[in-house]
Write a structure and sequence with these properties.
It contains 15 helices and no strands. With 384 residues, the protein is an all-alpha fold.
Length: 384
C-alpha cells in the first residue's frame, strides 16, 4: 500500500504542476481564474513537500527535515486561507475578506511561534517527514483547523454557486473543486487521528486520498482546456467528414471558396490553415453556398429518382433523404463540369434551405456511393 500511495502521490504532483504551467498564461490574464490558479499553486507546493521522495531528495541536498515540514505547514495554511479568499470573492464582502486575511496571518504567526518554542525537533524516517514540524498539540490543532475551515467553506460555497450559474465550464470547475475539498476534509480529519495515534497503518491510505484530491484539483483547473479540446476535436471531425463533399463541390463551383482545396483531407486536418472551429464553419458555409448554386443545375425529377434508386439499393430509411440529395447534387455537379448551362428556374433541394451542419454531414456520408448514381445530361442535349 505504501508503494501505491507513493506512486499516486507522485503522479498527482506531476499532473498538478503540468496543469499549473499549462493554465498559467490564460489564468493570470483573467481575474476570474487568477484566484483559482494561485490557490492550486499553493496547494500543489504543499502537496509536493508532503511526498516522501521529494523530502528525501531535499534532505540529500542538505535541507533539514524540520525545515521542509515547517515550510510545508506554512504553505498549507496559506493555501487554506487562499481557498477561503477565493470562494468568498464572488460575494464581494470586504469585511469578511479582511477577517479571513487577519485570521490567516494570525495562524501563520502562531505556527511560527509554537515552532520556535519547541525545543526538540527530533524524529526520523518517512513518518517524521510527513508529520508536522512541531509536536505541540496546539500547533497540530491550528494547522488542521485552518485546513478544515477552508475546505468546509469551499465545499458549501463552490457547490452552492455551481447550482446557480449557467456557465458550463464554471459549473464543472466549481463542482470538481468542491469534490476535491471533500477529500481534503477526509484527509485532514484522518491526519489528525494519525497524529494522536502514530501507527503507520493509516498514513498510506491518507496519502492516496491526498493524491486523488490532487487529480481533482487538476481537473478543476483544466476544465476550460478540456472544453476547448473537445470543441476542436468536434470541429476537426466535422472537417474530416465534410471534406470529400466540400472538395468536390467547391472544385465545381470555385467562386464560393475562400481558398483552393488541398489535395488530401489529411493535410486539411493535420495542418489546418485556420483554427479548427473556423475551418469547420467555413467549409460548412462554402458547402451550403455551393449547394445553392448547384440548384440551377438540378433536374426536376432528380431527387425522386435518386430516392427510388437509394431505396432499391437497400439504403436505411433514416438515410434515404441524404442519399437522394447526394444523388441529385452529384448529377448537378457533373453537369457543371461538362458545361451544361444553368436552368432559368432553380430546383430547390429538400432540407437544405437552412444549411444545417447535420444535413450537410448526412449528404457527405452518402456522397461516395450516390454521387454517380444518376446519369448526367450532355452539353449538346441540353442545348437542343
Amino acid at each position: 500500500m505504501s508503494e501505491l500511495a507513493a506512486q499516486v502521490g507522485l503522479a498527482s504532483v506531476l499532473a498538478l504542476w503540468f496543469a499549473l504551467v499549462w493554465r498559467a498564461r490564460p489564468a493570470l490574464r483573467q481575474p476570474s481564474l487568477r484566484g483559482l490558479w494561485i490557490t492550486v499553486l499553493a496547494a500543489t507546493t504543499a502537496i509536493t513537500l508532503f511526498q516522501p521522495r521529494v523530502v528525501a531528495w531535499l534532505t540529500s541536498a542538505g535541507v533539514d527535515v524540520h525545515t521542509v515540514s515547517l515550510i510545508r505547514n506554512l504553505i498549507g495554511v496559506l493555501s487554506a486561507g487562499l481557498v477561503l479568499l477565493f470562494v468568498i470573492d464572488s460575494s464581494r464582502t470586504p469585511r469578511l475578506r479582511l477577517l479571513v486575511t487577519v485570521g490567516m496571518a494570525a495562524a501563520l504567526v502562531s505556527l511560527l511561534v509554537l515552532d520556535l518554542l519547541q525545543v526538540d525537533h527530533g524524529g526520523a524516517g518517512a513518518a517524521a517527514a510527513q508529520r508536522p514540524a512541531s509536536a505541540s498539540s496546539a500547533y497540530w490543532l491550528i494547522l488542521i483547523a485552518a485546513h478544515l475551515a477552508g475546505d468546509a467553506v469551499a465545499v458549501v460555497v463552490c457547490w452552492g454557486y455551481s447550482l446557480r450559474t449557467t456557465e458550463r465550464d464554471l459549473v464543472w470547475s466549481l463542482r470538481l473543486f468542491a469534490a476535491g475539498s471533500v477529500l481534503a476534509l477526509v484527509f485532514w480529519s484522518g491526519y489528525l487521528f494519525h497524529l494522536y495515534d502514530p501507527a503507520p497503518r493509516l498514513l498510506p491510505y491518507l496519502s492516496v486520498i491526498m493524491g486523488v484530491h490532487g487529480f481533482l484539483r487538476v481537473a478543476s483547473l483544466l476544465v476550460p482546456s478540456a472544453t476547448a479540446l473537445a470543441r476542436s476535436a468536434t470541429a476537426l471531425r466535422t472537417t474530416w467528414q465534410l471534406w470529400p463533399l466540400w472538395h468536390d463541390l467547391v472544385t465545381a463551383v470555385p467562386h464560393v471558396a475562400l481558398a483552393r482545396p488541398r489535395r488530401t483531407r489529411l493535410q486539411e486536418v493535420l495542418w489546418p490553415r485556420y483554427p479548427p472551429a473556423l475551418l469547420a464553419h467555413r467549409q460548412t458555409i462554402e458547402t451550403y453556398d455551393a449547394l445553392l448554386t448547384l440548384q440551377q443545375y438540378v433536374q426536376p425529377d432528380a431527387y425522386e429518382r435518386a430516392h427510388r434508386l437509394a431505396r432499391q439499393a437497400g439504403v436505411r430509411d433514416d438515410r434515404l433523404a441524404s442519399a437522394a440529395l447526394a444523388g441529385a447534387v452529384g448529377q448537378a455537379r457533373r453537369a457543371v463540369l461538362v458545361g451544361v448551362p444553368p436552368s432559368s428556374v432553380a430546383q430547390p433541394l429538400p432540407g437544405v434551405t437552412h444549411g444545417s451542419s447535420e444535413t450537410l454531414l448526412g449528404i457527405a456520408r452518402m456522397w461516395p456511393s450516390m454521387t454517380n448514381v444518376l446519369p448526367c445530361r450532355e452539353r449538346s442535349s441540353s442545348a437542343q
